[in-house]
Design a protein that fits this description.
Elements (H helix, E strand, L loop, with lengths): L12 E4 L6 H15 L3 E6 L5 H14 L3 E7 L2 H10 L4 E5 L8 E8 L11 H10 L11 E3 L2 H11 L8 E6 L9 H6 L4 E6 L21 H10 L3 E5 L6 E4 L5 E2 L1 H15 L4 E5 L4 H9 L3 E5 L3 H11 L3 E3 L5 E3 L5 E2 L1 H15 L3 H4 L7 E2 L3 E4 L3 H11 L4 E3 L4 E4 L3 E7 L5 E8 L2 H16 L1
Parallel strand pairs: 2-3, 2-4, 3-6, 7-8, 7-9, 12-13, 12-14
Antiparallel strand pairs: 1-5, 4-5, 9-10, 10-11, 14-15, 15-16, 17-22, 18-22, 19-20, 20-21, 21-22
Helix pairs in contact: 1-2, 1-4, 8-9, 8-11
Amino acid sequence: MPTAPHIFKAYDIRGIYPEEIDSETVYNIGRALVTYTRAKNIVVSKDVRISSDTLEEELIRGITDQGANVIKLGLATSPLMYHASGKLNVDAGVIITASHNPAEYNGVKLCRQYAVPIGEGSGMEEIKALALNASFTEPKKKGKVTTSERIKKQLHEYICSFFISNGKKKIVIDFANAMGIIDKPVYENLKNYIESIYMYDDYDGTFPNHEANPLKAQTLKDLQKRVIKEKADLGISYDGDADRVGFVDETGEIVPMDYITALIAKEALIKHPGGLVLMDLRSSNAVKEYVEAAGGKVDLCRVGHSLIKKQMREEGAIFAGELSGHYYFQENFNAELSTLAAIMIINLLNQTGKKMSELTKDLKKYYHSGEINSTVNNKEKVFLKLKETYCDGKCNELDGVRVDYPNWWFNVRASNTEPKVRLNLEAKTKKLMEEKRNEILKIIRG
């Protein structure tokens, strides 16, 4: 099957298996990665999807056929792969995963050493061209395959070193039958301080209980019920490759993911006073105000892990957070480390003696529309009309169009995977939010 061009996204490679991404495609991606990066050693890992074993085998064959050696991690989270790319003697890292997508999808995430992303503008276009052409020079000798188990334990010990104890907290953790299970030892190592109640903690790449995607409210319903039933202090939910994490407070209410950015940023600023924090441009203004009140600086960033990591390096940010539940730590080579995010939130509960609902109370200042998707035929026409209509506001075209006014703001950005645009809007009153939301949707869908 010829490699499908559309599976190459702005920050990863993803498609339905085997119609869009199959063994031949991944084999060519392996050879393309070695050709483009000239890597000698590459760490390779996979998630638990049914197709991951086959794709891992072909990816490794492509890499070694092109002359590079492979350090095979086996099942891993994306944060673990990023960590390994910095701690092991490798030039690049790969994980077979489709992240939070449903079970029929699979894909590839790529990085250089120290988790430096390969994405739009940083190598994805070149790897795409090489993989599509599928014409490679033959190396003098093939690469070899070795394994590494110690790196998992090292990362778990490192995450545990951040924990601050004060009493005992009861936590419900929904692993969604996915890769977050890898980090179970972190919670087990802290069992004297954390009473952990696990949900869906057996590997199953069909995700039989719900999609491994905490961004979708319906996937959190079981967790919400269990938190209330157990009278727990906190609920935690991982996505498919554990690079996203969502939270539920002690009342069963979903905590907006940008609120978590604010809370973790405040903790990070204790260690890095006056540091720069990045928040994606869909996040609430309350986050910016909260971080600045804690003495930090704030800058907006585009959506997408490879784009954010690049900006963190360029601007020297100490931490970054996305509305989608990605949290990026300087401590993991500017990459995601979702279980560290969970530990830092538990630390906050311990240090302050407050409940989760109390910690987020100060952030509930504005009314947010949530992300609203609309199918459009001509995205450029939509953006032009929005800029013309709201030309009296402060316009930012970092990612789509964001326009700010004193009492409200909106962002409309194009989907990287579908013929859709996504609207996020926030206002100081519910009435104004609803009025402006309807007004802008009329333009988008008109």
